Amino acid sequence: MGCLAARLSTPLMWIDTHCHWDAPEFDADREAVRERALAAGVAHFVVPAVQAADFARTQQLCRAAGQPYALGIHPLYTPQAQEADLAQLDAALREARDDPLLVAVGEIGLDFFVPGLDPERQQFFYAEQLKLAARHELPVILHVRRSSDTLLAGLRRTPVRGGIAHAFNGSRQQADAFIDRGFALGFGGTLTFERSLQIRRLAADLPPEALVLETDAPDIPPQWLYRTAEQRLAGERSRNEPCELPRIAQTLADLRGWTLAQTAAITRANACRVLPKLLA
């Protein structure tokens, strides 16, 4: 498997602000995925943990590779999460306080799209993790899925040091509210679909300092990796990778009228601003 971006030999340096490099989908070729990312100019990708059981492994992988990471309990994992996991998160954040690779608390947030999730349970873990982020003076990486207003209400109750609203898909008013609270908004593979009208409008119109790039690899494939339901039923699979980021960035550049060099510089600076320990 190869990435077009890797074959472009770009000298630009990119930051993928959201990549689940620790996911099982990469177990067979994790190091090759990292090498393809580096060849494409993606020097850094932020790896957010999703459950307490993964914290130590995520830290080990990222420390060995020199890649930044975040620790948190994802809303999709709240059904099996326990209150003891919050104590484990607190302890892990305290232990890694001086680790320059720990850049945020995440991935945390709310998902009001997936059926069967208890919204009150989600909100409990979200609120408690905001408190931990505030206590440890870390930004947060937020999962935002039909939940912007409730997430913002939580941030008003428990202010944190900004962060990233990952895979943002809300309204302009909601986007401005996150920006006012010190957040950047993550744009990735969905941006590459012409039918993603609202997301493309936001990417084109928001202040430049509000934009960061991400892949969410192995998920949210860009248009050129997408497989239809029929193709998936036939056994075809697609796996997103961080090396796809420069090609995703080309879509953002086209929408903004920027060069790729401008896009790399702007989104890199934004990522380092909202996640201050990046490249510190």
Summed up, what is this model?
The chain is α/β, with parallel strands linked by helices and 280 residues long.
Shape: globular
Task: Provide the structure class.
Answer: alpha/beta
Strand content: 5-15%
Order of helices and strands: HEHEEHEHEHEHEHEHEHHH
Low-confidence stretches: 5-9
Looking across the biggest beta sheet, what order are the strands in? 3-4-5-6-7-8-9
> How would a textbook summarize the main sheet?
7 strands, parallel
Span between termini = 33 Å
Q: From the alpha carbons, calculate the radius of gyration and give it in angstroms.
A: 18 Å
Q: Overall pLDDT, averaged?
A: 95
Query: Which range best describes the helical content: under 10%, 10-25%, 25-40%, 40-55%, 55-70% or over 70%?
Result: 40-55%
| Discrete helix count | 11
**How many β-strand stretches?**
9
